[in-house]
Write a structure and sequence with these properties.
By secondary structure, the protein is mainly α. The chain has 9 helices and no strands. Helix 1 crosses helix 6, helix 3 packs antiparallel against helix 6 and helix 7 runs parallel beside helix 9. The longest helix is centred in the middle third of the chain and has 33 residues.
Length: 213
């Protein structure tokens, strides 16, 4: 498993100069826009997106077919990608918090303290965990290139769902949840994230076992 993760990180780091330049660009953009929260959100997005880069490298090199000639199970291959997903999202969150703390000192923005930055980073991290959990079974079934169109759908569905809920609440005058309800919902978020990730993993394992390589 360590070898599989090391392989993925080595592939991702092939573009390390581009990664550094883009991160520097996002920091500069945050200064220009006077928004530290947006910088941290983009940092989570950028690091999380490297999961798709790892899939693209594997597909280009026909890695899955080659891996099956080694003493590796299909379950291990799937599990390594889910661990990679969690590591990249976790790194994105931690880097966002570190950058947020630094930016909050050298470039303070009113209404965007460290707490707001950490909350924004956590929200974006949770959003990408859900999106990638929705995508992974399709990537294992169709491959990265064929699944790219589904990427747009996976990004759009949560946004449309939130918009639909808000629209219905306004149309039928449904009262917004109170502070206690919001706290309860927030406390259930980790359980929901763990559940959707576990279900996604189970589906991906089942799909990949039946896939012809």
């Amino acid at each position: 498993m360590k070898g599989l993760l090391l392989k993925d990180f080595m592939n991702i780091m092939r573009n390390k100069k581009l990664l550094i330049l883009l991160l520097a660009f996002y920091v500069g953009l945050g200064f220009f826009m006077d928004s530290n929260v947006s910088v941290c959100g983009m940092t989570v997005f950028f690091l999380s997106y490297q999961l798709l880069t790892a899939f693209s490298f594997d597909e280009a090199g026909k890695w899955e077919r080659f891996a099956m000639t080694m003493p590796l199970s299909r379950r291990q291959l799937v599990s390594s990608k889910y661990i990679l997903m969690l590591l990249l999202i976790g790194l994105g969150f931690l880097l966002s918090c570190v950058m947020g703390g630094i930016l909050n000192v050298i470039h303070p923005v009113e209404g965007e303290g460290f707490r707001e930055i950490a909350v924004a980073a956590a929200g974006v991290s949770a959003a990408f965990l859900i999106l990638f959990s929705l995508m992974m079974p399709f990537i294992f079934r169709l491959g990265m290139e064929k699944a790219r169109l589904l990427l747009i759908i996976c990004f759009a569905l949560p946004a449309l769902g939130v918009y639909a809920v808000i629209s219905l609440a306004r149309k039928y005058s449904i009262p917004m949840p109170g502070e206690e309800d919001i706290r309860l919902l927030i406390s259930l978020v980790p359980v929901f994230l763990a559940g959707i990730t576990a279900v996604s993993w189970l589906i991906s394992v089942r799909v990949f076992r039946k896939k012809e390589l």
